[in-house]
Amino acid sequence: MGDLASDHDAAIQLIIGEYHRICSHNKDHELLQYISNVTQDGFEFVKDKYLPFLERFETEEDKKGDVIRVAKVLTAYFIALRRAADEIEGIKKPEPPLANITPVKILDEIEDMPF
Q: What is the CA radius of gyration of the chain?
């Protein structure tokens, strides 16, 4: 099982791969405006584009909170990059069906613990 640091690092590496994939087709693609100085080890956010980046890739639910879920936002950016690269290359992937997820109860809400 991963931890937050490894999730963050994995998202960075995935973004770098898709960034280069798009660059090979279109160096001016609009999704590339958010990051710069991309190397195999990482990248920098473009200073004036950080807030628009969050506005675009943070979920509405996360925007209501006071914490930025960095790994989640980076993963959303990766997904957008991947979809754009697939579209450029003519790769058609069906949208996966939404999972029917039942929320886990918070332990404080359970009156009779099974143990």
A: 18
H helices present in 1-115, as ranges: 4-23, 50-57, 60-63, 70-88
HEC sequence for 81-113: HHHHHHHHCCCCCCCCCCCCCCCCCCHHHCCCC
Dump pLDDT digits (tens) for 63-111.
Answer: 888 877 888 899 999 999 999 999 999 988 777 777 776 666 665 666 6
Domain ranges of the chain: 4-88
Q: Do residues 81 and 30 make contact, with C-beta atoms less than 8 angstroms apart?
A: no
Q: For the whole model, what pTM was predicted? A: 0.75
Q: Strand 35-39 and strand 42-45: pairing?
A: antiparallel
| Torsion angle (degrees, nearest 10) of CA 100, 105, 110, 112 | 50
Q: Identify the pLDDT of residue 5.
A: 74
